[in-house]
Amino acid sequence: MTVNLTLLTVMGALYACGIYLILERSLTRVLLGLMLLANATNLLILATGGYAGLAPFFSKDTDPASYNDPLPQALILTSIVISFAVTAFMLGIIYRTWVLARQDDIQDDIEDRRVAETPSFDAEDDAVIPVETSEFPLPMRGPDGSAAAEPTATVEAGGRTLLAEHAALEEKPGSANVTDTDTDGGAK
Amino acid sequence: MNLASLAPLAVVLPILGAALTFVLIRHSRAQRAVSISLLSLTLLLECLLLASVWNGGTAAVNIGGWVPPWGIVLVVDQFSSLMLVVSSAVSLAVLVYATGQGMADGDQDAPVSIFHPTYLILVAGVSNAFLSGDLFNLYVGFEILLTASYVLMTLGGTGPRIRAGVTYVVVSVVSSVLFLIAIAMVYGATGTINMADLAIKLSELDQGTRTLLHVMLLVAFGIKAAVFPLSFWLPDSYPTAPAPVTAVFAGLLTKVGVYAMVRTETLLFPGDSLNTPLMVVALLTMVVGILGALAQSDIKRLLSFTLVSHIGYMVFGLAMSSVAGLAAAVFYVAHHITIQTSLFLVTGLIERRGGSSSVDRLAGLAKLSPLLALLFFVPAMNLAGIPPFSGFLGKLGLIQAGIGLGTPLAYALVIGGVLTSLLTLLAVARVWNRAFWRKAEDAEHPDPVLLAVPAPESGTTAVRLLPRTMVGSTLGLVVLGVALTVFAGPLFQVADQSAAAMLDRSAYIQAVLGDGASVPALALSGGGK
To answer: Which of these ranges, B58-67, B147-156, B315-324, has the smallest mean pLDDT?
Structure first.
């Protein structure tokens, strides 16, 4: 089977540009990249049909090298329709992002950032608790019973070293490191 | 008339329903009636299909009378019909749940009225992918369900959903492009895209080309199935969607990817030695996924991570390519679709009752709503694999198959599987302890709803927070999950038979291409060593 070198070169260039573009953070460029990838793939499918300019097959005795396979073109039609729908949808999303946030960039997942920055110290599980030996309140004591009036436990969080007590405080609402994580409820 | 020739209706009925509900877009009651009744009809039909192949056998339907390998063919066998029945049962439960939620919240908003048509198109795409006996038709099935899922994912167009939707759409489109490239390569190499025909012709190719095609298809399906290095899109994009949408995505979409992987491995490239990389990937999927789940405080995100993690079990069963391993994987897929969906539905209920899905803010739900606690507890224990439940049976089957295989890597996977199961238990137990067991006053910053005096059963508050249709459909799914345990015997028998048939391949190939078709001998018998 012979293939058209020009088509192959164009296909390669489209793939290269497409992959470069979808790695961008700007949504419009990502969309352009997806379109280029889809079109490069269409060219690839076209190349499997045989050399351009030949007639489709007409009799079952025809030599396979002397006709053009029509099936890949049917496949391309389907894939063009699909990529058209996806492109239209992406444009809708991009417009919506612009309306909502006035920006064209992919945004970070807030909850993901928050989980990443949460210290491994858990206020409920790991805090120093008073050892109760009598029914009268005692000063704070560590697990070994020694006085722990000065909290010394530290945790690593977000590249800083914090006192465990402060890290626990950061989990309280209104502190600088806590972002509003409540999503929009279960409504459809 | 052969019952299997009704198979196209599994795709046609939901699409018809989508058209009808689109016409009825201004009449929400008629819309609900049409979509629920048509989906029930589809489920009934698929039960008939499953019954017709229950004792083995494969049937092929040539669409439009075109003889394979030229025309599009739909294939009904035990695996595909089992997947169809489970997926439609789950979709029906989620549809009832979503309808209940819509009625409770008042679905007068414009975007919600497109929920029913889009949802039915999603179901049609899933059915098409399960039934397809043609690689390009499989691609079309994927595209139908993906395009519908893009719309469902961004329903309402709020900021977080658009953000999550962008990631989801771009990743899905890239995986589809990879799949399409693979199809073009397969067609260029063999001149056919009929899967039965490919099973014969691919074995005539030289090893290098075959490995290339094999890897390309596996990568494309691996993105859709969220297998480890390709799974990072999932926990970012699923949790923001509406509860019923997340539930159906978690249950079905990744499993369609797993289904396609199973077909690729067993039908198209049996005996090719990609089993070792697949096993490594399965191990990493399980362990990395569940470690991610442990770090989360939001229940939806936690469940998304367990979803990724448990895909590893299915890939493990598939990678063993022995009858026992594949049968356990088939059973596990059926179990996991049901359980994961019911957990997401329960999370939707928790969010309604407790005002949040973050375990930091939830507390005391067991006292507020014992039924909700039961609804969470049963599938959660089922997911973790506590003995009487189907999760335990599926994992037991996988572990037995792994020990039966006896290679060091298989033992590593068995250990990884047990570890993942224990860590899953830890993750869901943390949710249970915090959201259900502790007192509301102990929460870090509890939602005011939790601190309020519990409403009496007859009060209007309780009815609004937990509508009967939503609780009922969730209960139905939980019961279905328990039923998988009760009927595990016959189910495992069918899974065994379907695994044997898939590894043998002759039934599939002869059903599609006629009895005269010769089945190529495998380069390597399916031992996976």
So the answer is: B58-67
Q: Is the dihedral of CA A136, A141, A142, A144 positive or negative?
A: negative
Neighbouring CB atoms inside 10 A of B379's CB total 26
Q: Does B169 touch chain A (CB under 8 A)?
A: yes
Least confident interval from A132-146, B60-74, B211-225, B488-502: A132-146
To the nearest whole Å, the CA of A124 is away from the closest chain B CA by 9
Spelled out in words, what is the top-level CATH class assigned to the domain A5-101?
mainly alpha
Question: Which residues in chain A (126-145) have CB-CB distances under 8 A to chain B?
Answer: none
DSSP-derived 3-state class of residue B467: coil
> Interface pTM (ipTM) of the complex?
0.85
Enumerate the residues of chain A whose CB falls inside 8 A of the CB of residue B159: 100-101
The highest-confidence range among B201-205, B347-351, B417-421, B433-437, by mean pLDDT, is B417-421
Helices (H), A102-161: 110-117, 123-126
Q: Could B180 and A45 be called an inter-chain contact, meaning their C-beta atoms sit closer than 8 Å?
A: yes
Separation of alpha carbons B437 and B439, rounded Å: 7
Nearest Cα to Cα of residue A32 among A43, A44, A46, A17: A17
Residues of chain A with CATH 1.10.287: 5-101
Confidence at residue A109, expressed as pLDDT on a 0 to 100 scale = 73
> Tokens at residue B67, please?
């003889």
- Residues (pLDDT < 70) of chain A are 1-2, 52, 64, 120, 122-126, 129-188
Contact by Cβ (8 Å): B305, B247: no
* Alpha-carbon gap, residue B377 to B382, rounded angstroms: 8
Residue B343 reports pLDDT greater than 60: yes
Alpha-carbon distance of B162 to B169, in angstroms, equals 10
Q: B139: nearest CA in chain A?
A: A79
The pTM (predicted TM-score) of the whole model is 0.85
Highest mean pLDDT among B28-37, B96-105, B442-451: B28-37
- Residue ranges per domain, chain B? 273-486
**Which residue of chain B is at minimal alpha-carbon distance from A106?**
B163
pLDDT score recorded for residue B256: 94
Q: Give yes or no for B98 touching A (CB within 8 A).
A: yes
Query: For testing the chain A interface, which of B121, B135, B155, B170 should be mutated: the one with the most A CBs within 10 Å?
Result: B170
Partner B contacted by A186 (CB < 8 A): yes
- Rg over alpha carbons for chain A, rounded to the nearest Å, is 31
